[in-house]
Amino acid sequence: MAALLSPEELENSRVAYELIRLKLRVPIIHYLTDIHSKPLRLRWRQLHTESPPNGKLPDSVRSFISDVMSVANLSSFVALYNRLDDGDGKSVTASMLLRAWKMHDRVGSGDLDINAAWYAIRDVRAKIVVWQRCPHCQAGFIYEPNESHARSCPFCALSRRR
């Protein structure tokens, strides 16, 4: 007879399913939910009719920074996540990631990969990249001196283009 899942375990499984549907990498889902990789990989194949991607995960959000728009999208997601988060302000949870993702998607804040969004939150919270406030528009943004597109406020840069 199969063991019954607690309400918390059911919710954790539901969130994991949604994150797989959004194509968050299996090792990240495993890390966030503590669900073993094997059933996550099986679920991925069922949902996407292909195996989940293999290979090395990026080291940081830096690999997702390609232009000013990517910095703006990543920064807007981190700002939204931080606004919605009622946790300890340090850890990233699967349910909060999903909640922020759905809200960000509803607002229509541009094209963003959920893997990049997770790395952005993780890296800002771990201080791998700097979260800075623009002195002009007061928006928070990812500041990374080693990336030319992330050395100044992406929102001000985009507004100057108009």
TrEMBL record:
Pfam families: FlhC. Keywords: Activator, Bacterial flagellum biogenesis, Cytoplasm, DNA-binding, Metal-binding, Transcription, Transcription regulation, Zinc. One of its GO terms (biological process) is positive regulation of DNA-templated transcription. InterPro entries: FlhC. One of its GO terms (molecular function) is DNA binding. It comes from the Bacteria. This is Transcriptional activator FlhC. It comes from Denitratisoma oestradiolicum.
